Amino acid sequence: PSAYNTPKQPVVRFKRNKHHKGSIYCVAWSPCGQLLATGSNDKYVKVLPFNAETCNATGRPDLEFSMHDGTIRDLAFMEGPESGGAILISAGAGDCNIYTTDCQRGQGLHALSGHTGHILALYTWSGWMIASGSQDKTVRFWDLRVPSCVRVVGTTFHGTGKTCYRSAVASVAVDPSGRLLATGQEDSSCMLYDIRGGRMVQSYHPHSSDIRSVRFSPGAHYLLTGSYDMKIKVTDLQGN
């Protein structure tokens, strides 16, 4: 029999029991792989110092942050040398703020306010930029150099048309060039938005239920979507 017919069973290299007091909703690696962040409905963000080579904790104490007053739905590390690879962003329910944390110093940096509904998704690009999707049916772009919201998508007119989300934005992603935003909504629609042009490119329904995750391929030729309908789909973005 071929190797494809007899796959090897995966080996668990590291396990941490009762890491949180509640369900863990989101996890993230730091760009250098030496920090592992988790967010939970116990309202805590934890950062675990980790050695990727030995696949084990380093022995240094975990960092624990309690700035959230609701479930943490998503978190991500800022990428790029500008942020030093240790700036963590996190958001979710409660006060609907996005919090930024310097994990090297172990201290909070910013509380970014503006959303009026629970934040369901975060995405970072270009070193300092953040996109956030919310139950308030908007996507907000944030620039940490300011730091503040620099654009709201979903409530304002752009050019000759209106970009309006009809339901909660459950997932967001930006292509590697920083030009195109993709969103997945709870009404099963997917929207493509031209960031530089400030306009919607297309809206379509690849699924029959909530779209909970969207991601571009490395060359942005394809968009991968995952849904509550138990399907994953790849959309060809090339051409028209």
UniProtKB/TrEMBL annotation:
In this chain the WD repeats are located at 17-47, 112-152, 162-203, 204-240
**Pfam families associated with the record:** WD40
Keyword list, A-Z: Repeat, WD repeat
Q: Which InterPro entries match?
A: WD40/YVTN_repeat-like_dom_sf (IPR015943), WD40_repeat_CS (IPR019775), WD40_repeat_dom_sf (IPR036322), WD40_rpt (IPR001680), WDR47 (IPR040067)
SUPFAM superfamilies xref list: WD40 repeat-like
Query: Which Gene3D superfamilies would you find in this protein's record?
Result: YVTN repeat-like/Quinoprotein amine dehydrogenase (2.130.10.10)
Key word Glycoprotein present in the record? no
**What is this protein's record name?**
WDR47 protein
Q: Can you name the source organism?
A: Corythaeola cristata (Great blue turaco)
* Gene this chain is encoded by: Wdr47
